[in-house]
């Protein structure tokens, strides 16, 4: 009986089970209690992408998907390399990047100035806020006929479309942040007898910066999306121009390359803004 009592797992009828002392279990190192991963998490996340590419390539190799409908990954990779080595892709990317950069350089300051005017004065709010919130529900693509009438079908029309698309997210996020600033901060600025400009620089802008950066990330994504559309309107250079040419000759490998380049450029832009966000907002809790 004593021998059985010394082995409590036999009382449960589970000869292969090891009982753990709950008093000592809490003292175990968290790394010992956590099951060890055999495969890194980053590699596990790529499993779905690899599987999709494998099925895509298999379908293309077996002829289930016609190259005129969708080229396989191997053909897309080969076409990408050819476009890089002959300079076609680099030139197109540079032209498209310039259009987005110019649109951002114009649209961001315009949206910021409108937000400051609307958020810091009653007159500005009456004149700007309702108008901006009304116009932002107008489909931007629907404005293209008017833009063509005003500016023609050249570079000005393409950049104007990006400027309009960029302005609204900058304005909405920044103006809302300005209007929700803690009144105690503004009262403190008045107590310290800060000038109008000093109040904007030391109180308003720092408080609105997080929301402004969120709007900037949204604006960057919108800029690249609108570039896809604008570059298909009588463009003679850029990534969209390559896509239109490829569409004419059913070159789906070139179209896929251009779409992937659009996606990568947008992703890199977003990563860049997030890095800046992490640097300038280090004072925020949780960063």
Summarize the structure.
It is built from 15 helices and no strands. By secondary structure, it is an all-alpha fold.
Structural class comes to: mainly alpha
What's the CATH H-level superfamily name? MetI-like
Tally of discrete structural domains: 1
The topology string of helices and strands comes to HHHHHHHHHHHHHHH
Rounded to an integer in angstroms, the radius of gyration calculated over CA atoms is 29 Å
> Considering DSSP H and I runs of 4 or more, what fraction of the residues is helical?
over 70%
Task: Give an overview of the whole structure.
Helix 8 (88-120) packs across helix 9 (122-135), helix 8 (88-120) runs parallel beside helix 11 and helix 13 packs antiparallel against helix 15. The protein has a single domain, classed as MetI-like (MetI-like fold), CATH 1.10.3720.10. The radius of gyration is 29 Å and the shape is globular. The protein contains 15 helices and no strands. The protein has 287 residues and is an all-alpha fold. 25% of the residues are buried.
What structural keywords apply?
disordered N terminus; 287 residues; 74% helix; 15 helices; single chain; mainly alpha; 0% strand; MetI-like fold
Give the topology.
Elements: H1 2-5, H2 8-11, H3 22-25, H4 30-33, H5 41-45, H6 47-61, H7 73-85, H8 88-120, H9 122-135, H10 144-151, H11 155-179, H12 183-191, H13 196-230, H14 239-248, H15 252-280
